[in-house]
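Trying the structure run again after the queue cleared.
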Amino acid sequence: MTSQVSRLDRQVILLETGSTQFIRNMAADQLGELAKQHPEDILSLLSRVYPFLLVKKWETRVTAARAVGAIVAHAPLWDPNAEELLEQEENSNGETTAKIKLEQEMQLKLEEVSGENEFRQDDKRLISLAQWNLHELFKSNRVLLASSVNDFNDSWNAGRKQSRKNYDNDDDSNEGTPPREQVKSENGEVQVKKQDSLRSAVPSAASSKKSARMLAMAKRKKKMQAKSSSSKPVDLSESYISKSLMNQPNELDSPSPTTLSNPKLDITENSDANKIMVESMMVPILEKHERVAGLVWQFQGVYELLIDNLMNDAWEIRHGAALGLREILKQHALGVSRVKGKTKAENYSRNTKSLEDCATRLLTVFALDRFGDYVYDTVVAPVRESVAQTLAALLIHLNDELCVKIFSALEQLVLQDPQIVAMPTKIWEATHGGLLGVRYFVSIKTDFLLSNNLLDHVVKIVLYGLNQPDDDVQSVAAAILSPITNVFVKLDPQTIDLVLTTIWSSLTHLDDDLSSSVGSVMDLLAKLCKHDEVLDILRNKAIQNPSEWSFKSLVPKLYLFLRHSISSVRKAVLNLLNAFLSIKDDSTKSWLNGKVFRLIFQNIILEQNQDILNLSFEIYCSLLKNYKSKHT
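Done. Tokens:
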């Protein structure tokens, strides 16, 4: 009998089985619309989507995170103390009666749970930034790789067992083969003697392998089982707070049905008309948690599950957990750990401690994650990148004191001062994670950096990253300043001069087509040269040291990148040439010659990217205008 699949199940399964990304995104958006129409079923929808955050397929995890964001976007913000501010605003009697009735129901729930257990926050479970120690993390030798080492051992052992089983079955299933003879040797050892001559004479009927059709059927069956197991809903109503309320002393001591406060009874028919069978049924977990519904933040359960999965050995689970946390914290971070019945100050303290714990765990992932992957011709670190985005979503809701502590921890991750870390060698993956955190920190909290005089620390971090030999580190370091170039050019000219010198010197070492940092470095240089302050500094350096800093010496260094294999690098070089052509001083146009005309014309002939082709044509026309005005 085939199992019935509801329309909602088919909609959720599309997150994984959709043929294109457009279809998968549409399925995710439709789940958000469903949550908008039925806000009371938001937690049920999340329980169906949650398993897809932890699957091995990248596209499925990204689409599931989109669905989580669409669903939680329609959930009301949780503030149990908001009603205290609205008590004086009730005017009509109907609204007042409904208000009183709702408050009475909540009060009954509070009285029920207060006699059994209190809302408490176990501070031992939460980690503060003061407890975070980078030296101890490195010293622990705990690293987060693609998966656990035990997974490889288990799969290898399972393969050995399977091959041995197949070999034994192959031996035992040979028809006409006489049993093995046990021969006792002179030293007492038992030896097995095989009659190979008789075995080879009789053909084996069961030794033939399975047909291709049966192998394909087994493969499809295994695939369907994997899909069905990944789409099972997960109970997200449980959380540490709700469990502390549900763990009543009498239930824990004696779990027998007679000790239940309100057991459910079910009468079963019996063949004897004079007898009935009464069965005591345990209360389902969802029904038990209805007792605390409305007292606890509804996403507390899924939040705690995702927090725990951040330190999972499998990188896919860490990645999915970070994506899910990003979507939840983006809109509902201020509701974490808040409960009904506490004062506004107490709830604020609970929320601050929980968010600090989350930030500390994200920093720990930066320090321990070592996984890297490839997307086309670019090296990426999906876990660290997603964790950095989650940290950015969290920073929006944190106070200035916590932000300063987080920035200090990120700086410590990047620099790895030997006096603090006390390690013989620096770990470049930790530096890369810290730079990713600083990159999103700068984008989100630019005004905070200016008000707290932390921009100089950002420049120090960028210079350190640009001087590192690792391409990934250089790439992220250059990307830090790109969104704040308009603020950076207002700094001391000596600081700008130092950054420009570092960038131009690094270009001489980035002549490899496989270098991943060329695009970011070139893009930063192009954005800086759009500002008059930077062009003035370059002009002054050219006057003071014409042999090294004249435009005639600098521009030829860019010719090598005009036909770079990465399209973003080619576009950045053209933007940089366009910035040099925009300078009004004709003395800076000494680099205009026949070679640059030939190279740009070559770009027009060979370029396949339409945007870069149009930009090449614009620059060629600008070259003609500038050359004409210079020689007339």
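The chain has a mean pLDDT of 78. Worth checking whether this holds up in the mutant runs.
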